Amino acid sequence: MVFASIEFLTLFLPVFLILYAFARPAWRNATLLYCSWVFYGWWSPAFLVMFMGLALGGWVGGLAIERAGDRPLRGWVLALFITANLSLLCWFKYSNILVETFQGIRIFAGFMPEDWQRVILPIGLSFIVLQSISYLIDVYRRTVPADHSFTSFGAYQSMFVHLIAGPIIRYEWVKRELNERPFDWSHFCIGARRFMVGFSMKVLVADTLAPVVDTVFALPHPSLFDAWTGCVFYGLQLFFDFAGYSAMAIGLGFMLGFRFPENFENPYVAKSIQDFWRRWHLSLSTWLRDYLYIPLGGNRHGNTRTYINLFLTMSIAGLWHGGDSWNYLIWGVAHGVALGVDRAWTRANLPDLPVILARIATLLFVFLAWTIFRAKSFDGALAMYAGQFALGAIDYSDAVLTQLRPVHWLAAAIGVACVVFPVYYPALARRVGQSWVTLGSFWPVFGFVLSFALIASRGAVPFLYFQF
Question: Which of 82, 166, 399, 425 could be joined to 440 by an S-S link, Cβ 3.0–4.6 Å?
Answer without folding.
Answer: 425
